[in-house]
Automatic annotation (TrEMBL):
GO biological process, one term: cell division
Family membership noted in the UniProt record: Belongs to the cyclin family. Cyclin AB subfamily.
Known function: Essential for the control of the cell cycle at the G2/M (mitosis) transition.
This protein's name: G2/mitotic-specific cyclin-B3-like
Record-annotated membrane-spanning stretches: none
Lineage: Eukaryota, Metazoa, Chordata, Craniata, Vertebrata
Amino acid sequence: MPVSRGTKQTNSKIPKLSNKPGSTENVRSEKESSQTKRSPSSPQGAPKKRSAFGDITNASKIQTVQPKQKEAGKTLKKTQKSTDVTTNNQTNLKKSVDKIPTKESPPAELEQKKEVQKSEEKKTNLLSKEKPVEIPAIDDVDKENLDDPCLSAEYAKDIFDYLKEREEKFVIPNYMDKQSDLNREMRAILVDWMIEVQENFELNHETLYLAVKLVDHFLTETVCMRETLQLIGSSAMLISSKFEERCPPCVDDFMYICDDAYKREELIAMEMNILKTLNFDISIPIAYRFLRRYAKCARVSMETLTLARYICELTLQELDFVPERASHLAAACLLLAVSMKGLGGWTPTLEYYTGYTAEELVGLVKRLNFLITYPDDKLKAVRNKYSHKVFFEVAKLKPLDMLKLQEIISEYVEKLP
């Protein structure tokens, strides 16, 4: 067993007693040397006096020397004093030896530590033999924002789960069959104009998406003529601006953007008509909010998010994508953008936060890829907008081939557990 820290070999600590009788100088030197060497400074702080008596074997040597000194010094009183000193040293030595742990009998605490170490080693050996269980890691994207009270990170997932539940209430069917004087091309031209209004007024994208939703919900309930279609679009932009913007444009601004085609009273009357038709329930879930949330969960760059926004904004002009749920559409746009950038597949983190698997998004992703591959040449607002350097010129990116997209998506589906 190794010597404990702070102890030294006792052969150099315990002085050797001389066999000559009457050697008082040796006895005094022994006493002085023992006193000076019994209190060495400890590296851990206080001096350890017991470190001088670490070796028990010297005690037997002192006991054998003691009778010779007594026989040789019967006539001398000084030698009797020396024998008293040696006996005192022996008694002190025995007391200290009883307290100091020996090499042959370690203390109980050290034995307990050894047993604990052995048990831990056995556990680690057993664990190393077992096969590791692969658990899909889910990234906690809201953990880093818990210190900011403005973000409400602890309620973020609950908020978006609630928005997904509200989507069931705002599902829009294909309403164009009810409109006798309107068609899908007219609606696409109106949305293209609304995109230009959003860009000219520098409004939020949430304002644009909500305005398009208000138009679709109003046309689902009311039959309108083509002369009032632009009035419906401008009134919907005014309502959503009041709902989303910090400083919304006024009525005169929308009258100006319509080239004074409508009067002020007509614009206000249409605003009231839309609100009454929708029962003032205009907090409609939009795809743009879900897209920003899912992009944060995927931790993609701003360029990849802008590409997904470009794809999602193209769907606003297409009537075929109106019945799609906002969360489903946002997840498919992000998956297509990630595939075009070659940034990996649909991770368990995205599946957890979106609630959609890769298999549920395959059909919609193919439709979106077809949309960006063959865009409508008459509708240029979205492509001109996202061809600017501010938006990383994502509209100029080459879309994926259908066969290559099928291979990429099939790999995503196979990798998922």
